[in-house]
Amino acid sequence: MSFRYAARRLRARKPWSSPACVNGPQTSKVTPAWQTSRAVASTPSAEKVLFPGALNSKFTNTLEFLRPSTQEAISTYRVLDQYGQVLDKETGVDTEDEEALSLYRNMVCLSIMDLLMFEAQRQGRLSFYMVSAGEEGIAIGSASVLSPADVLFCQYRESGVYLQRGFTLDQFMNQLFSNAKDAGLGRNMPVHYGSSELNIHTISSTLATQIPHAAGAAYALKLQNQQQPDVPPRIAVCYFGEGAASEGDFHAALNIAATRQVPAIFICRNNGYAISTPTSDQYRGDGIASRGAGYGMDTLRVDGNDIFAVRRATAEARRLALEDGGKPVLIEMMAYRVGHHSTSDDSFAYRQKVEVEDWKRRDNPITRLRKWLESRELWDETKEKALRSELRKEVLVAFDKAEKQKKPAIRHAFEGVWEEVTEEQKAHVRELRDILERYPKEYDVDQYEDGLESLVKLSEGK
């Protein structure tokens, strides 16, 4: 029997129609509920279309295009005004005084570390740095209401998330200097932190790749939450800037998260600039929040300069993300990037200095929280000076210790790729060792932990 003849016989045969299958298993096909609902045809008297692609669309005989430019912009949620006054006295701020003081301390610590590290880079002591000026409230406020077990995916301006979760100044400095105590063993450029202990994935330079990673992780967490009902449920939280929302990864990730209904919060820091590109050149629509609605996700826009609004919004988003087995939530946190994009950028080449100074003077998360603290007589200028002096010393002590540490052992350049060092890698090790031994004056190996000895041991399989 030829292959083509057999294929035609199989196509022509009805299911379970052959004599051998008469008494076989009579399995009926179960149609998923979502297929059944989308297969309903509209009737002459139906008020809704019931097309598979738009189930809830009503019929109309009015020809009218949806024109976003005629609609009101999505509102921005806030708890405090720019003078630090509570807008809704009955609701309040959901934050105890001592907790507010702790949040303020962390924000000030972050700003001091940013200032000192920026200057250190300008002095040639660090190769690269990125500040979080103007966005401290978003990172620290959101992280403060998440569960320590929640899995976080950050971009490169979330140092405050790490600080709030317990990342120490020593850990920050060790990573920035890529020294022997760096958890990443010097394999990443500065500001690319990571911590498995704190459930924060390592930051990647590649823009927006963390967004689909978060969607996938959230799907895994959804399955874990279902299979382990005795364990407190967890969610995935992803941070990114509005510039990253222009990448294809953003759209793919949100669509996957929405269709799979995963427990995730996507936090967009809309600070007005994607490096040198202002938002006016990035998109025509109503910010990033409008995109969340387009993907069928619960969405909110928040004043990122108001740490209390950030906290309340994130806490509610976490509750929603775990509702009915899980669903994604998008929060657009509005801010203004006071600093340069990074130490490789001069923002005054594309924006006026007076614009930046105006934002510094008019409103920022640290100033607004301080005004609230002062209104409750919890803070004053004396305490401010004492705190800044104390934190500056702590940062400089950690900086000094990290700068004096040796670099990671050279062997780490080869280890960690495969479970064991391959023969090809060993040949590369021997080649590098030979070069270093022949030209000792050109290569200072003493600055690395164990010096040349680490390569000697690795090449000999020790």
Overview features:
462 residues, alpha/beta, Rossmann fold, 2 domains, six-stranded parallel sheet, two-stranded antiparallel sheet, 8 strands
Account of the protein in words:
It is an enzyme of class 1 (oxidoreductase). Its cofactor is thiamine diphosphate. One of its GO terms (cellular component) is mitochondrial matrix. It catalyses: N(6)-[(R)-lipoyl]-L-lysyl-[protein] + 3-methyl-2-oxobutanoate + H(+) = N(6)-[(R)-S(8)-2-methylpropanoyldihydrolipoyl]-L-lysyl-[protein] + CO2. The structure is a single chain. By secondary structure, the chain is α/β, with parallel strands linked by helices. The protein has two domains: 97-404, Rossmann fold (3-Layer(aba) Sandwich); 410-459. It is 41% helix and 8% strand. The protein has 16 helices and eight strands. It has helices spanning 3-12, 33-38, 97-122, 136-143, 159-165, 169-177, 210-227, 248-260, 279-282, 289-294, 307-321, 353-362, 365-375, 381-404, 423-438, 453-459, and strands at residues 151-153, 200-201, 236-241, 264-270, 273-274, 277-278, 298-303, 328-334. The strands form two sheets. A six-stranded parallel beta sheet has the order 2-1-3-4-8-7, sandwiched between helices. A two-stranded antiparallel sheet has the order 5-6. α4 packs across α11 and α6 (169-177) packs across α14. The N and C termini lie far apart (63 Å). The relative contact order is 0.12. The model is unreliable at 10-28 (pLDDT under 50).
